[in-house]
Amino acid sequence: MHIYDEIFSTSPFGVLVVNCKSKTLAIEKSNRYIDRLVGNDINCFNGSHILDRCIDEKKNITETVALRNQRGEILYHSLNCIPINRNGNIEQIFCTAVPNDNTNNIIDSFSKLLTPRELQILQLVLEGYTNKYIGISLKISEGTVKKIIYNAYKKLGISSRIELAKMFIH
């Protein structure tokens, strides 16, 4: 029996082990929660570079990350990454992903105020993307992105990315 087997079979939240032995990170083992949420898409965890930081800093790192599920919806989770150090090398990272209900509740309340496009763009803003990048990825002009953000901020009664981020701080 593997050391993690009981955790994987009983956890109501996401549990996964990331293999770090090769240059390419890969999900080595995950429970049903992770399988249903993101499948084997390791890239969904690296938007924040949390896995790379865990390896480089050789320490536990916890932060809120936006995970895009297989249906394209963004769900916020508190991701805790623990490096497994063997003989001075990080060979694996043990991770837990717990839904951040406060953040997800805020996003749900946003969806009552904002258009789907405004919500989509604000989620990308919260992930740290620039207006230019958002425009390119959505195939719209940077000016259109700015206008949509302005309209969304107006509806939320805020005026900056900082104020938007502060809405998610407990």
* Principal-axes shape call: elongated
Round the mean pLDDT to the nearest integer and report it.
Answer: 80
In sequence order, what are the helices and strands, one letter per element? HEEHHEEEHHHHH
- Output the CATH class name of the largest domain: Alpha Beta
CATH architecture of the largest domain: 2-Layer Sandwich
Proportion of helical residues: 40-55%
- Cα distance spanning the termini: 39 Å
What is the CA-atom radius of gyration, in angstroms? 18 Å
**CATH topology group of the largest domain:** Beta-Lactamase
Total of DSSP H or I helical runs spanning 4+ residues: 8
Strand residue content: 25-35%
DSSP summary, beta strand count: 5
How many structural domains are formed by the residues?
Answer: 2
Lateral arrangement of strands in the main beta sheet: 2-1-5-4-3
How would you characterize this protein structure?
With 170 residues, the chain is an alpha+beta fold. The chain folds into two domains: 95 residues, 2-Layer Sandwich (Beta-Lactamase), CATH 3.30.450; 65 residues, Arc Repressor Mutant, subunit A. It is built from eight helices and five strands. Strands 2-1-5-4-3 form a five-stranded antiparallel sheet, with helices on both faces.
